[in-house]
């Protein structure tokens, strides 16, 4: 991500330090992760110490300090999905991809995350890949879904 | 877009909108919230638009994409007005037939209307469907009638009338008195009387003052705030403006959970349009009252639903709670007096102003007035959002509206109040729903999640699940929460794995007591509730796990074994084919056997074994029968012609 674009985002928020979270969210959504150089630029421009930015970037779950895979796999671990067997779906996905929640595989193909609730409880257990919802999924159906992504 | 400068101009504008609308003109309504999109409502919308064009109906029929209707189990939902004919689980392929029938032939497509699962009786008229019939949709009802971003739709449905009444006819003190008399209590969790909170903020010294909408809905299984924010953003906004006027605030904030992009979009458009029309900004409707709002996106932290944490997050800092007092009403955002309420609370305000405190307070119980929106999820037939009067019994909500438990299973418990809530057992099903009633039963109202559990849900595992959730979401600032929860989680996990010790219960109780007494914020002080309430009502499940190494619900992976009942196995081979671990031995016309040493308890065989055979079973607390002898494994009788 180039410096000009970062500055643009910061300027949109009038360069106010209190907009730090909003600035980081915008960068995260465009760049999919927060490289160190980007954080350094934000620190300089907003005049917020880098240590504080690190605190924010690690405190909130929306931020990633490592690159993400091509496909974002979100497994809903909300209570409704849990009582309907989400744990077994998660175990299956872990087996298939070889990664745990919060990790990305070495080929940068999949990033796996668990989420607290996607609010589609009628469809539980729910797996969401790149924004597409796979509802009422069973461990037995999971391999076909995962393997359909290149 | 012309600015509206006075109540008279607003009424003229409303009249003009209504004069352009013909109530007898057919209107197709399609639910289009986040959960609806997940079930395919976007595709249905495209199909409807194309079909209307194809049948040359586009100017004879209105098509409205609304927010969530609540009956998520049967989405996407199409309702044809003015008849209120309700079609469920509509797919794009159904659309041509549906439109022809409803708009040209004036008939009903029988296969798409509601069918009672028990009696087979069909119901086409929306208000008569049992799921809707027992509800009282005072707050949530507008969702079905308006396109979320359309200010015209909102005004056509009596929108902004409360705002006019408040600004023109009432003083701030009168508004606060009205909200106090109505008995409105906060819908976000704690249930604090909203009017009292407003009064504190109004009387607090310090300028400027702020008002905040808490839309950081983090409880898993609760999505009513999202559906209100997505489906009726003007309604929440109207409540906020009235509150700001009553408190004396000129700046407001919406704190919207990062996972809610559609809520954010609809809200942002609503704010923009309200500003353009002069319902926000300087001198609102000529009243002399100025008010602006900003939207802040959350970044994914459950604890930010706690008010002091949320305010820190609004300031651009890490969302760590701080001890109260001082309360936000005295020292809130940037240390200024701040009033913070959740989405549903704000959405109730226009209703109170319009109908009056007395009418509002006539609904409900002694301590809980009005209605509450619950999300009914888990092991329930009719998953969805339901709005019911306070004082209704849990049994009515779960069985009359929710339609009971799927697959004929037995109800075990309902979990209310989010991760810090509690589980209520079957014997308390006639409990009236209200803030104090639920607290007395060892749970709480929380934001309104109701997770239904059946006989296959293990209560020890549920406690472990919630403590795990809270351990993960603990901000780490205070020790009883950060360390205490971690220890509780370790012990509960151990119990579910069959490694529980006798003394574990005493340790859990002591850790729970410390967390309740000594935590900084509500997250920690209520974090022990999942354990305390499950232990209170389901003690025998704990002892079964610890003493007998048995999971009565047959749910805890480490405590169960899978076994193929030789009497039922037909040798169909499905389990053999699907077993990921090669743990099943079988073949044509042969009874299949699971090698217990190779089996990883993944449960795939159990899932794929056809229900009519029901031959894979779960065993807990007793030894798995030895495999039958090789010569007995040949299946003699087999079906002909296969």
Overall 3D geometry of chain A? elongated
Report low-confidence residues of chain A grouped into runs of 5 or more: none
Radius of gyration of chain B: 28 Å
* Overall mean pLDDT of chain A: 92
State the end-to-end distance of chain B.
72 Å
**Percent in strands of chain B:** 5-15%
The helix fraction of chain A, in percent, is 40-55%
- Tell me the distance between the termini of chain A: 25 Å
Cα gyration radius of chain A (Å): 18 Å
**Could you give the count of β-strands of chain B?**
19
Can you tell me the CATH topology of the largest domain in chain A? Glutaredoxin
CATH level 1 name of the largest domain in chain A? Alpha Beta
**Count of folded domains of chain B:** 5
For this structure, the quaternary state is heterodimer
Mind telling me the CATH superfamily name of the largest domain in chain A?
Glutaredoxin
Main sheet summary of chain B: 5 strands, mixed
Helix content of chain B: 25-40%
Look at the helices and sheets of chain A and give the structural class: alpha+beta
* Number of spatially distinct domains of chain A: 2
* Greatest contact between two chains: A-B, 44 and 55 residues
Name its key features.
heterodimer, A: 150 residues, alpha+beta, Glutaredoxin, 2 domains, four-stranded mixed β-sheet, 7 helices, elongated, B: 642 residues, alpha/beta, Rossmann fold, Ubiquitin-like (UB roll), 5 domains, five-stranded mixed β-sheet, 19 strands, 14% strand, globular
């Amino acid at each position: 991500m180039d410096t000009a674009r970062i500055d643009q985002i910061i300027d949109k928020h009038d360069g106010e330090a209190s907009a730090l979270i909003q600035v980081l969210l915008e960068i995260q959504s465009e760049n999919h992760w927060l490289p160190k150089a980007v954080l350094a630029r934000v620190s300089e421009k907003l005049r917020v110490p880098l240590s504080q930015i690190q605190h924010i970037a690690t405190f909130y779950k929306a931020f990633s300090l490592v690159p993400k895979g091509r496909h974002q796999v979100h497994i809903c671990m909300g209570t409704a999905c849990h009582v309907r067997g989400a744990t077994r779906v998660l175990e299956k996905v872990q087996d298939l991809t070889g990664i745990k929640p919060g990790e990305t595989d070495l080929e940068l193909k999949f990033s796996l995350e668990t989420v607290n609730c996607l609010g589609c409880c009628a469809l539980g257990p729910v797996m969401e890949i790149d924004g597409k919802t796979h509802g009422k999924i069973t461990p037995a159906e999971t391999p076909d879904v995962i393997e359909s992504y290149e | 877009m012309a600015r509206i400068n006075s109540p008279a101009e607003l009424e003229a504008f409303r009249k003009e909108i209504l004069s352009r609308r013909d109530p007898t003109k057919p209107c197709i309504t399609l639910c289009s919230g986040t959960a609806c999109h997940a079930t395919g409502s976007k595709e249905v919308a495209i199909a409807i638009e194309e079909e209307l064009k194809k049948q040359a109906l586009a100017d004879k029929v209105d098509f409205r994409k609304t927010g969530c209707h609540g009956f998520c189990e049967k989405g996407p939902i199409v309702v044809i007005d003015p008849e209120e004919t309700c079609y469920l689980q509509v797919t794009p392929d159904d659309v041509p037939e549906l439109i022809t029938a409803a708009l040209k032939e004036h008939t009903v497509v029988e296969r798409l209307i509601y069918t009672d699962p028990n009696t087979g009786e069909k119901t086409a008229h929306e208000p008569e469907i049992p799921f809707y019939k027992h509800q009282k949709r005072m707050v949530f009802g507008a969702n079905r009638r308006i396109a979320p971003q359309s200010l015209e739709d909102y005004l056509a449905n009596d929108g902004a009338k409360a705002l006019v009444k408040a600004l023109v006819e009432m003083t701030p003190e009168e508004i606060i008195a009205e909200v106090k008399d109505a008995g409105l209590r906060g819908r976000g969790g704690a249930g604090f009387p909203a009017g009292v909170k407003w009064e504190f903020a109004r009387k607090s010294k310090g300028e400027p003052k702020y008002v905040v909408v808490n839309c950081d809905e983090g409880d898993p299984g609760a999505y009513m705030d999202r559906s209100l924010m997505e489906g009726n953003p003007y309604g929440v906004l109207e409540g906020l403006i009235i509150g700001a006027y009553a408190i004396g605030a000129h700046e407001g904030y919406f704190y919207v959970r990062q996972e809610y992009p559609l809520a954010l979009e609809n809200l942002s458009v609503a704010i923009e349009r309200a500003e353009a029309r002069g319902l926000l900004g300087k001198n609102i409707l000529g009243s002399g009252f100025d008010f602006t709002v900003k939207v802040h996106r959350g970044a994914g932290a459950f604890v930010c639903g706690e008010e002091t944490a949320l305010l820190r997050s609004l300031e651009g800092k890490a969302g760590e709670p701080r001890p109260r007092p001082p309360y936000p009403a005295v020292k809130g955002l940037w240390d200024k007096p701040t009033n913070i309420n959740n989405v549903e609370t704000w959405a109730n305000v226009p209703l109170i102003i319009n109908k009056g405190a007395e009418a509002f307070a006539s609904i409900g119980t002694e301590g809980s007035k009005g209605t509450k929106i619950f999300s009914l999820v888990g092991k329930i037939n009719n998953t969805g959002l339901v709005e019911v009067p306070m004082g209704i019994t849990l049994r009515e909500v779960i069985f009359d509206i929710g339609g009971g438990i799927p697959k004929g299973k037995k109800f075990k418990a309902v979990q209310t109040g989010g991760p810090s809530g509690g589980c209520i057992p079957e014997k308390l099903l006639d409990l009236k729903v209200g803030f104090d009633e639920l607290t007395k039963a060892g749970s709480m109202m929380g934001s309104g999640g109701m997770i239904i559990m059946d006989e296959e849900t293990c209560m020890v595992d549920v406690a472990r699940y919630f403590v795990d959730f809270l351990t993960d979401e603990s901000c780490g600032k205070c020790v009883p929460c950060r360390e205490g929860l971690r220890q509780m989680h370790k012990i509960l996990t151990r119990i579910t794995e069959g490694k529980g010790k006798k003394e574990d219960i005493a340790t859990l109780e002591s850790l729970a007591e410390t967390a309740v007494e000594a935590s900084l914020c509500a997250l920690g002080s209520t974090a022990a509730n999942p354990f305390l309430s499950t232990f209170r009502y389901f003690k025998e499940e704990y002892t079964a796990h610890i003493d007998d190494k048995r999971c009565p619900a047959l749910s805890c992976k480490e405590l169960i074994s899978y076994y193929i009942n030789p009497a039922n196995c037909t040798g169909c081979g499905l389990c053999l084919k699907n077993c990921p671990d090669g743990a099943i031995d079988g073949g044509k016309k042969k009874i299949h056997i699971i090698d217990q040493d190779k089996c990883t308890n993944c449960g795939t065989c159990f899932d794929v074994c056809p229900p009519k055979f029901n031959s894979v079973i779960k065993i807990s607390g007793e030894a798995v029968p030895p495999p039958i002898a090789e010569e007995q494994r040949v299946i003699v009788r087999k079906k002909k012609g296969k």
